[in-house]
Amino acid sequence: MLKIAYDPIYAHPLPPGHRFPMLKYELIPAQLLHEGVISEENIFSPDAVEESAIVRTHKEAYWHQLRDLTLPPKEQRRIGFPLSAQLIDREMRIAQGTIDCCRYAAEFGLAFNVAGGTHHAGSNWGEGFCMLNDQAIAANYLLDDNLAQSILIIDLDVHQGNGTAEIFEKENRVFTFSMHGDKNFPFRKEHSDLDIPLDDGTNDELYLSLLKNALPALIDQQKPDFIFYLAGVDILASDKLGKLSLTKEGCKERDRFVFEQCRRHQISVQVSMGGGYSPDIKDIVEAHCNTYKIANELYF
């Protein structure tokens, strides 16, 4: 069964200037339901993650400043919007949703979080609309509970997963792979275990060639028993922040290839959706829905 973490709070409560891109969190499940790809049975609503799981990944002092809404204004500006209790609750539910998806992925092969992919959050900072790193928190959950011994994080959002790279810099059981725009945010990059920087204007052919050359070798080398996939659709040519030139078909082929590799090696995979900032919300929703449809086709 395809299991999808979604809660209405994913789309709220954000400042007015950020509500347009966040509409996708409501529209993606609605579109999948409308097309009959999923039913209500596929969707679950996560609780808030426990603090013990947060401080396994993030510094306690940083978490307390988030929790108590005492993060300095300069650090709030780095995140991109002012803190609120509802916003922190949203982050906590997204993180728990990714943990829950790990359990479902172990049972069904893969599971999705409609939100997540908060890869700019480092151990002691928030940045780029990210405060708690959902996939890092979930990876540490798997390690701590001996549910995985070797983890591969495949980050194909257009922006480097700098927070994820910093968190796992000294953790040999987690291999971080980021394929991203070289001249895009964040302008100060961290060092993933493997970074593939892309020039502005990179097209389908080059992007897919690089991915298909790198990923099978990584899986053979690392032999992961769990994979996290960050499936941002800000690689599209239509994306106002992406700077790459991929088509929707190229984006679909990217997803298909990642899922085929996971299935071929019988590795469970958790998917967080990541970024998408095309001016037309229909382009964002269609591209994200394509990721679900391909997974549903291959797995179910």
Description:
The chain has a single domain (3-299), classed as Arginase, Chain A. It contains 11 helices and 8 strands. Strands 2-1-3-8-7-4-5-6 form an 8-stranded parallel β-sheet, sandwiched between helices. The chain has helices at residues 19-22, 24-35, 51-57, 60-67, 73-79, 85-108, 134-144, 162-167, 204-222, 248-264, 281-299, and strands spanning 3-5, 43-44, 110-113, 151-155, 174-181, 194-198, 226-230, 268-272. Helix 2 crosses helix 11 and helix 9 (204-222) runs parallel beside helix 10. The chain is 45% helix and 12% strand. The chain is α/β, with parallel strands linked by helices and 300 residues long. Helix 8 (162-167) links the parallel strand 4 and strand 5.
Mean pLDDT: 95
- What integer value in Å does the Rg equal? 17 Å
Biggest sheet overview: 8 strands, parallel
CATH topology: Arginase, Chain A
Could you spell the SSE succession in H and E letters?
EHHEHHHHEHEHEEHEHEH
Note the gap between the termini: 7 Å
Structural class: alpha/beta
What is the CATH superfamily label?
Answer: Histone deacetylase domain
Q: How many strand segments?
A: 8
Question: What is the CATH architecture assignment?
Answer: 3-Layer(aba) Sandwich
Structurally, the number of domains stands at 1
* Uncertain spans: none
SS summary, helix count: 11
Strand order of the largest sheet: 2-1-3-8-7-4-5-6
Organism: Mucilaginibacter glaciei
Domain Histone deacetylase: 21-289
GO molecular function, one term: histone deacetylase activity
Keywords: Hydrolase
